[in-house]
Amino acid sequence: MADSTQNGPMPGGAGGGAVQFLMANKLDTAMWISRLFTVYCSALFVLPLLGLHEAASFYQRALLANALTSALRLHQRLPHFQLSRAFLAQALLEDSCHYLLYSLIFVNSYPVTMSIFPVLLFSLLHAATYTKKVLDARSSNSLPFLRNLLEKLSANQQNILKFIACNEIFLMPATVFMLFSGQGSLLQPFIYYRFLTLRYSSRRNPYCRTLFTELRIVVEHLIMKPSCPVFVRRLCLSSISFISRLAPTVA
């Protein structure tokens, strides 16, 4: 990897180093392209410039592209597939496996704008990181405007990850609402609950646990005010207790 990220231009023009870097890291490059395609499709769903009918197809394409990216990343993390319980348990610890499951949950469901934001933002963050590596391989001072945009995105990474975690949490009641409104399947809330427990237990991304804790503190602070009706306080405390019992144990 260090050999690929050279600062000076390579023979064959200013882009020679970038091309060499991309060819030397084919799997990472494939994930970069699929992430850029995910961002493109997600943007055209959120902003339906080509019409509402086309927006629904871009929703599916974004989730399928994200599933491809997640599968490639999972293969990169666990290259030797084994049909065993131990391998499955190890795979479920990986964030890429979580979002492979996420894509499969929503790809054939009624399009929900909230469900596309985690896919869009994760793809944007990872694509931005790899784009900086490509720019460094091309030249240390190439495309300063794009570099500034990438730096601003990186500076707001923590806020973006918190926003993603918030989406992950509030999609749980959204799947239940979709079920009762006739836009979701009976299994979707149960499968999504499994996804949410995996995100809560994630070793690499603690933001889901952090958001649950912060939301609990905020709700408890509000309901303990004298102006809060007693039945609302009891309902909220019962809900907090119920959700806490559902939370998985984190090692």
TrEMBL record:
GO terms for cellular component: endoplasmic reticulum; membrane. Keywords: Membrane, Transmembrane, Transmembrane helix. It is a multi-pass membrane protein. One of its GO terms (biological process) is endoplasmic reticulum tubular network organization. Belongs to the PER33/POM33 family. InterPro entries: PER33/POM33_regulator (IPR051645), TMEM33/Pom33 (IPR005344). Its main location: membrane. This is TMM33 protein. It is found in: Membrane. The chain crosses the membrane at residues 32-52, 99-125, 169-193.
